[in-house]
Amino acid sequence: QVQLVESGGGLVQAGGSLRLSCAASGRSFSIVGMGWFRRPPGKEREFVAGINWSAGSTNYADSAKGRFAISRDNAKNTVYLQMNSLKPEDTAVYYCNAAFMVRPGLLNNYWGQGTQVTVSS
Asked: How much is the average pLDDT of 99-119?
């Protein structure tokens, strides 16, 4: 079973930066992609950013474009989310997600436990 462990969350002032990390450990599978989701207070979980593991292509939610950058370290099975120019509306629990090719035709999604990001006004 794969485990995802996030780190880097915390309290930051508006305009500040945080860098989230998510490391996958446990059973070895082929990572197809990793990404970040978040759940703001009182709202549903939403997509933030994702990255294809082999090609490195990225995609972002509109709210993240121009401020956030997702990257990966293939050797460490780790994905990062650099968050700059943070706004109070970025306050949320951020969840790491990983899609693994368990066997041909079968992708399994794994989730981290979440890390709290709080941006003060």
From this structure: 93
